[in-house]
Amino acid sequence: MTQAAHLLAATDLTPKSVSPLQRAMQMRAESDCRVTVLNVVEHGLTASITERRRSESLSELQNWKATLPEAAQPGVSIEVVVGDPFALILDGVRAQHADLAVIGGPSRRGLKELFIGTTAERVIRFADQPVLIVNQHPNGPYKRVLVAMDFSGGAKRALEWACRIAPNAEIRLVHAWQPPVKGRAHERREIDAANRQLREQEEQQLKAVVQQVAPALSLLVEIVDDEPYSALRNKVGSFGADLLAMGTHARSRFSTAIVGSLAQDLLAAGPGDVLVARG
Questions:
Q1: pLDDT-flagged residues of the chain (< 70)
Q2: 245 near 145, Cβ under 8 Å?
């Protein structure tokens, strides 16, 4: 399974955007991929102020590039553009044919309503390619990756990309299970038997997904008896995951349902870095 060939790393030149650049360069060191660093100067200012900010941003990024090891510099390009950050990040991913976008999370975390409508959330919602949200300072390659698996196309794509960007990490799949068959107390034996059978079927499905997506890797698959949010939050902590990979569901390309409630909660809480892939 090949690693990423071209990353687009978006930076707004604030302190929190340093980590996405560092992560992109760490990934470049591992795979020799190309990296495009994109900075967007927001429009709406006078022409002279806009040009001054564009020039200052370009100069700062060129100085940053000059600090990189000489061997790394040819594969790194810099672009500074003027406009709406969300739209131009998406345009940059498409125009550059990047196969992964690397961006920073919102500066304030912990409340889902603060995350909705941010540049990060909107990029995730509409990007065709997977998006890596970098919330923490990189400390080398990812070591422990947790993949939320629900059999959706997005979840399978998230697993694929987790394997691509963290090929040497310990990767675990977690599937939240809640017994679907209900009934009266006197039917308990039949209900338990039906639920056991369904659980075993889903376990076989999980193994089939792993065989399909990552046949060469030995991945641990866990079924957790809990609702999805608690299952993932608890597993991220107990496993010590430095990356959570998950898919999002979409009824419509233009629907806010593209980033579902579970994804919004986990992205806003920022347990670590989060890789999101849309099905």
A1: 1-2, 106-117, 180-186, 249-271
A2: yes
In the beta sheet, which residues pair with residue 103?
A: 133
CB atoms within 10 A of CB 257: 13
Rounded to whole angstroms, the Cα distance separating 8 from 141 reads 18
Mean pLDDT across the chain: 83
- pLDDT of 181 reads 63
- ∠ at Cα 101 (150, 155), nearest 5°? 5
Determine contact, residues 53/83, Cβ cutoff 8 Å. no
Convert the pLDDT of each residue in 9-51 to its tens digit. Answer: 999 998 888 999 999 999 998 888 999 999 999 888 899 999 9
CATH assignment, 139-244+252-273: 3.40.50.620
**How, if at all, do strands 100-104 and 273-278 pair?**
unpaired
- For residues 58 and 39, what is the distance between their CA atoms, to the nearest angstrom? 8
Place of tokens 């963290």: 166
Alpha carbons 135 and 239: distance in angstroms, whole number = 18
CB-neighbour burial class of residue 139 (10 A; exposed 0-12, middle 13-18, buried 19+): exposed
Rounded distance between C-alpha atoms, residue 153 and residue 162, angstroms: 14
**DSSP H stretches of helix in the chain:** 18-31, 47-66, 85-95, 112-115, 119-126, 153-165, 188-213, 228-239, 261-269
How many other C-beta atoms are found inside a 10 Å radius of the C-beta of residue 221? Answer: 15
HSE-up (13 A, CA, CB side) for residue 99: 13
According to DSSP, residue 106 is labeled P
